[in-house]
Each structure stands twice: as structure tokens, then as C-alpha cells.
Amino acid sequence: MNKEKGNQKHLTLSDRINIEKGLINNDSFAEIGRSIRKDPTTVSKEVRRNAQIKEYKGFGNIPCEANRDIHNRCVIMHVCGDRECLQTCRTCRKFRCSDICKAYRPQQCAKLLKAPYVCNGCGKRVNCMMEKRIYSSKYAEDRYRDLLVSTREGINQTPESIQRMNDILTPLIKQGQSLAHIYATHAGELKCSRRTMYTYIDAGVFDVRNIDLRRKVKYKKRKKPTETGAKDRKYRVGHNYEDFRLFVEKHPDASIVEMDCVEGKKNGKKVLLTFTFRRTALMLIFLLEAQTKEEVHRVVDWLEEKLGTEVFRKLFEVILTDGGGEFSGREYLEASSVKGRRTTVFYCDPYSFWQKGCCEKNYEYIRYVRKKGETFDDLTQEKTNLLANHINSTKRDSLNGLSPFKLSQLLLDEKLLTAMNYHEIMPDEVKLTPELLK
After folding, report:
1. Same domain assignment for residues 321 and 391
2. Mean pLDDT of all residues in 93-114
3. Of the candidates 1, 86, 157, 384, which lies 20 to 30 Å from 279 by C-alpha distance?
């Protein structure tokens, strides 16, 4: 006979009530199992695991297992310490053998040694003086709930394993690395899930705390910008964000690069010009002496010269930027220094930074090293390249555990990394803290 396959789920309170009813009706484990769609062995384990021992509550002594055959002839006296008592302990009405006799062992029913292992369906249960075992659905459900909670509490690790994980995590987090980057390299050594690791950190198991995890810190609510100066200028006509969307629909495989400037200290001279490739999240960083059109044009011309016009056209097919004055020279940016068009420039809507979210996300890594409001005037292009190398070597969940550098080696022309003189940083050496540029 084919057995109906169970639902592979834990027993519910309803299942336990049906088990208790079945035991009272003297149903077999197979019959009970069919009624709740569980295997008979599951029912058997449930009954034996959660059966309660019930003591005799009536008058008189409970027969002793050790003296079952001679219980009625037991002559032990003065177990309670009363030397003046003239009766045997067996006949005493003040105490029970089960309460005071060290030699007492409860008499057990032989029927409990085989299925159903409990007394629920026994007709002699009420007057029986032997040790009884009762299955209660409420008691079983309470035990199950308590076990379910207790097994999910505490730290299921040895002190040695905790120390080993701490030795891996703490130095790398102190270097500014994210758990995503650490797990992409050390998941096999940590031997637990990232969710569990967050739980351990939250519980204070390691030397690092939640405050050391940047993503745990809440962002300040952005102030709503004013609407002044939001009108399109002449250079934006035909190159607004809606035009960009239409272009992408016609050219879904186009290489899109997001361009923007990162400002330092107010009234500071130097700024960072960044190019972020959407496909790989690779970010190029250039140090500009001033936030002007001329400086931006200089960098774009340098890139075309180093890469060659054909490679530049392939990599920088589309440039998406904002309406800052330094990017207003669209015609110059698009025109090749050799011949024809080298790229197509589009502009985001005013106050819509999310439209170039890839570069905005990458700025988070820059701010780990240089806080907002700090100057860039002390930097050189060499230090800027060092910053770019560490950012581009950070492994990310959004890239399926790869770093932008590694993905760019697969998807972008190799001339780009060679021209920028970029190189990959070893995973454990990645540092995204202010000490990097000191």
C-alpha cells in the first residue's frame, strides 16, 4: 500500500490535538499518521518525546518496583526518623514511600514499554497506582514553542571559532571594508551566513560594533532644494533626460558613462571629476585644478588621445551628466579632436541626482576617505589614482561578488585600465578610511 507523502512541515497544535484524540480512542500510530498526513514514526517520536510522567494522587503508598513481589510484606520502619512509631512505613498514612524511602523505585506498567507508550487510552488509568505517562497536546505545543525560541537564541559557536572570525573581520572592517567585500573573499573561512554575522556584531560578540558598519548608520534626511535656476539652457535642448531615455530605447547596448564633479571644502580650488561606467561600476577619477569647462575639456581630450578615437567612441558612446556650468560646453565635448563626433552628451533633470545613481553610489566610497566638506587641495593625481584603485577593487553584491576592476577586465577594452595606470588592490589590503591618503 502506498503511503501518502507528508507535507514536510512541523507539527501544528491542530495535529497534536488529533494525536491526543487518537491515543484516547486507542488508534494505532499508522491510523493517527494518516489522519494528519504524517509518517507513523513521526507520531511515535512526538508521543515519546512529549509524554508527561504523572504521579498517583490518591491515598496509600504506591507499590515499589524494587519490591514488587514482596511489597505487601515490607517491614521497613522509621524511615521518617520517628523512632517511637510502631508501624511499618508501608502502612503509614503520614508519608508515602515515594517521598521518603531512598530504596523506592516507582512501579511501571509493562504496557508502557511498547506502543502507544502512554496511558491515554487505558481503561484502568483513573484508579491505577503505578507511574503513568500521559500525552497532552497543550503541554507538547508549549514545549515545542519553548524549544523553537531557545534554539534560536545565543551564539552557536565555540570560543575558538569566535576568535577566529574576530581575527578575520575586525582588521578588515577597521580598514573600511564592507561585509559584502569581506564575504566575497573569506566566506569559506567565516563559515556562517552574513545575516548571522550581523546578528553577532549586534550582540557585541566581536571587537567591532554596529557603529563600525557604515551601512548601519542612518543617513541624514536630504533637504528639499529650491527651484531657482531649474530652467533648461540652450545647450540642453534635445539632450535632456527624456531624450536620453529615447536614445537608450533605440540603442539598448550602448556604453553609458555617468560624469560628475565632487566638490571638497567650500571655497577650495581643486575638485574631482569622475566617470562611472554603468555596466561595470568602474570609476575614473581626475583631479581638476578648478571647476571649469576648460578643465573638463582638457580631461576629455586627454582620454581621447590616450585611448584613440575609435576606442574612446566605443567606451564613451553616451555620457550622462548634470547641468553644472563646467559641463555646459556640450558641442566641444561631443566633437572629436580628429574628425566627426566622439560621444553624445545628455543631461539629467534638475535636482534629480538619482538619474545617474551609479556615480552617486560610488561617491559613498569617496566620502569614506574624504568626508564631505574636507578639501581636495592637498591631493595629487597619484593620490587620486590610489583612491580609485581601492574603490575599484572593492567587491560588491550588485556585481555578484566581483569588483569593478575585475569586471572591467572582462567587459571593457584593456586600453582603458592601461591608460589610467590603474591596478587591482589585493582584497585584504583594500582600505577605505581617511588614513589612505595621509
Report:
1. yes
2. 72
3. 384
